[in-house]
Design goal:
elongated; DNA-binding; homodimer; 55% helix; mainly alpha; binds FE2/S2 (inorganic) cluster; two-stranded antiparallel ribbon; Arc Repressor Mutant, subunit A; 157 residues
DNA sequence: TGAATAAAAGACATCGTTGTCCTTTATGGT
DNA sequence: ACCATAAAGGACAACGATGTCTTTTATTCA
């Protein structure tokens, strides 16, 4: 499946936080989980990890929550993939046979080397910021599990 | 990880059978598992599945085992992927958000559409037979978990 | 200082993948 | 018919990914 669920949740969480930065300083996990349609506590675990790894900042207590710096916006997706799924997709043999290299290639090595290289290039050259753009309501719908009318954006904050 | 272990075992099993066809009519699971360095009973399950789906033929009893037809050699890898992992990699959104299409694309859709298209093309146009070639000993080493000296090829058959 | 809020932390549950083991069925040789 | 061989089938175990729940820690505000 290329990416794990964890990677998907992490990316969507980060994008949601990035999107909210002009409105509010910190975003709470509860709000993220609801808007994105993602399991709350599981998302919490993932966010905690990202904080520890320096990709997010968090503040406890009232008015606290998660936020991110410009540096994070400029990070390539590969960094996030590394923190969640690891880089096995690129470093390991697709058939999981010892080391992956041209010296002792598996039957799929050369075909997959191309694909893996292309994928890696995309993950290396695409930053979090690159995924943003567009208008806000449409963008939130594009990362939410279920659509919701944009009115929820203004409401209870 | 792109492919499951199951897919890897299945492919290596099929290639091993294909490779042995000039020597012996049927290949036993025991031999396959040992030579490839793969869990025996798990491999059995996978082979059973491939037989049921028409990708392999099997015969029970003494001198029995698995074999495959020319038709199987001409099958694209995509068929095997379908029988093991399914085609979710190609049909689903990489973030697992509803349907994957350009109408309501996720933030990674267009980047991943290209990669997924390339991968699919490889899987569609590459057949089992395409992976064979080369000299036998070298090829077996390329699908075995651990190297073994070629003498094992001649020995106890 | 006390109450409320929100993340951090850790224990535990569920589920799909991977792997093992035992019994049943089919086949060939005697 | 009987025995040996080998796949088919099904029960179950181990494990990692995913998901839930409760307790602890940090922070804000009154
Ligand atoms: S050796 Fe298998 S993908 Fe490189
Ligand atoms: S919509 Fe996400 S990959 Fe197509």
């Amino acid at each position: 499946m290329i990416f794990s669920k964890t990677f998907g949740y992490a990316l969507r969480g980060i994008l949601y936080i990035a999107l909210m930065q002009d409105e509010k300083r910190f975003v709470q996990i509860e709000e993220m989980a609801q808007k994105l349609g993602v399991p709350r506590h599981f998302l919490g675990k993932i966010m905690k990890r990202l904080v520890k790894e320096g990709m997010l900042l968090s503040v406890k207590g009232p008015y606290g929550g998660y936020t991110l710096s410009d540096a994070t916006l400029q990070m390539p997706l590969l960094r996030l993939e590394d923190l969640t799924d690891g880089l096995g997709t690129f470093n390991n043999c697709v058939l999981r046979l010892r080391a992956c290299n041209a010296t002792n290639p598996c039957p799929l090595h050369f075909q997959m080397e191309r694909i893996k290289g292309d994928l890696r290039r995309v993950m290396e050259t695409t930053t979090i910021a690159d995924l943003l753009h567009k208008d806000k309501k449409e963008f939130i719908n594009s990362i939410a599990t279920y659509e919701f009318d944009g009115s929820m954006l203004e409401n209870e904050n």
